[in-house]
Amino acid sequence: MNRSALEIAPLAAAGETLDPKSWDETRALAHRMLDDMIDYAATIRERPVWQPIPDVVRAQFRESLPREPTDLGEVYHTFSEFILPYATGNVHPGFMGWVHGGGSVVGMLAEMLAAGLNANLGGRDHVPIEVERQIVEWTGQMFGFPPGASGVFVTGTSMANLLAVLVARTSTLGIAARQHGIAGEGGLLTAYTSKAAHGCITRAMDVAGFGSDALRCIGVDRSDRIDVGALREQIARDREGGRKPFLVVASAGTVDIGAIDNLVAIAQLCREERLWFHVDGAFGALGVLSPALAPRLAGIEQADSIALDFHKWGQVPYDAGFLLVRDGERHRDAFAAPAAYLRREVRGLATGTPWPCDLGVDLSRGFRALKTWFTLKTFGTERLGAIITRCCALARYLQGRIEAEPRLELMAPVNLNIVCFRYRSEHADHVNGEIVVNLQESGIAAPSTTVLDGRLAIRAAIVNHRTDVSDIDSLVAAVLEFGARRSSALEHPSRIAPRLAV
Ligand SMILES: Cc1ncc(COP(=O)(O)O)c(C=O)c1O
């Protein structure tokens, strides 16, 4: 090597690190960013829930690759002008679509701290891993799981359900299945869930290699709870046909109407049939924190595994999905794999096995545990449980408003925090689809839609801790207003309905 190749200018002199040139200027800007985001949360009601994205805004994100640096203040200005006002809107109390959590300022601050630490929670011996282990322990306590239980943060419940299918597979077929795949006996494995279950269960069966045909979607009762008798019969039929039942996925809060399956009966059935009992509790599982709801989740404590999202009713900022597994050894059996570069030691940084990378498919992972830890510590589970209770009370209030209003129709029982309803009209599917789009574009409220028994429904999922009676009243008033205008426009096409002001 010639001498000139070894002559490297000191980093600082070359200005080559990514640290700020002026720490003071960066500090001042950082304080402004923090103030702005606190103001954003504090004044959230002054803004529309959501607003359509103008072309000029979208165009900001069609730029070519930035080869040259841009001043941080300028980048932040672009954020303030073009990103902040056009977010999904789930921080807003009027957001009621798709079961989104509202987050909190506490979670936001924790995210900043986590980013500052820049910890990789794949493994190794550092306190961020202990924080994740603390959450595993706390979550185990919430559900009455034994001390050997294990858990892992993932993006969301879709991923947690996929991991659960893989744990159930390895538990049934043995660790050799990880090497040989699911050919032979594995190809006969059959899983069960209800017709009302979330689509990610089907996808998990597909991605895990079983194929979606290996999932039996059992019928439901009028409240969308799985028909346990039909489940039992299907399992018997499948055994007779030579298939190998291995897994039941129960729902603790279905996505459409928040139904909770009979978890006690399913636990009993799984015990008798020696099947893995998994609960998809994406949002409903945290109902155990609400004294009013907890009894309806009886049986969840007997699950072999539970998938849930702290980013929904837990009010932790996105994303914070979680898988809890009763038997930690089975959890590790499904994923732990030796690798020379991940060797565990008895001293130094590479100690403290098992590592989270032994409990899922991710190696590099962020510090999701910190925002969850801050949220649980700062608010306490009683307060979070009270918010869950209140969301359900608001759903019942909305139900009452609908039942008292002849122009509205309730479309499904109100099980938890989700209310499905619609404006009565000859052209109800069309009119209600329009109502929802108009509501979203008006910025007054943002419910979503679903289809129940082939009929389109307005679906209001009340998840946000900021949502209040006034938000429900605004939703009802706007649905009636838009419904009347749309119906009238259909009857008298020449009249053009003006948009409601925010
Ligand atoms: C019952 C149920 N299961 C699974 C999911 C998927 O969760 P995620 O979006 O966190 O992946 C949802 C999402 O709302 C859900 O309601």
Kindly describe this structure.
- The protein has helices at 3-6, 11-14, 23-42, 55-59, 72-83, 105-117, 127-142, 157-173, 177-180, 199-207, 228-240, 263-273, 328-335, 368-403, 428-442, 469-491, and strands spanning 150-154, 189-194, 215-218, 244-251, 276-280, 305-309, 321-325, 408-410, 418-423, 448-452, 455-461.
- The radius of gyration is 26 Å and the shape is globular.
- The relative contact order is 0.13.
- The mean pLDDT is 95.
- Helix 6 packs antiparallel against helix 14 (368-403) and helix 8 packs across helix 10.
- The protein is of the alpha/beta class.
- Strands 1-7-6-5-4-2-3 form a 7-stranded mixed β-sheet, with helices on both faces. It has a 4-stranded antiparallel β-sheet with strand order 8-9-11-10.
- Strand 8 and strand 9 form a beta hairpin.
- The protein starts with a helix and ends in an 11-residue tail after the last helix.
- It contains 16 helices and 11 strands.
- The structure holds pyridoxal-5'-phosphate.
- Pyridoxal-5'-phosphate binds at residues 99, 156-158, 198, 200, 251, 253-255, 280, 282-283, 309, 321.
